[in-house]
Amino acid sequence: MTLFLRRTLPLLLTFLFGVAFAVQYYIPHPVSEGALTEISIWLRIILGFAMILGIASLCQVHYAKIRTRVAGWGYSLVVYFSMLITVAVGLWARGQETGTGLGWIYTYTLLALQGTMFSILGFFVASAAFRAFRARSKEATVLLVAAILMMFGRVPLGEYLVPAAGPLAGWLLNVLNLAARRGIIIGISLGGIATSIKIIFGIERSYLGGRE
Amino acid sequence: MATSVLIGAWVAAGLTLFMFSFLYKDNPFFRFGEHLYVGVSMGYTIVRIHYDVMMKSLYGPVAQEGKWWLLVPALLGLLVLTRFIPKVSWLSRISFAVIVGFGSGVAIPRIISSNILQQVQGTLKPLLNAGSSRFGMAELNALLILTGVLTVLVYFFFSIEHKGAIKIAARIGVYFLMVYFGAAFGYTVMARMSLVIGRFDDLILFASRDYAYASVVLLILVTLGLLLWERGSTGLTTGGQRRTQTPPA
Question: Is the ipTM of this complex over 0.90?
Answer without folding.
Answer: no
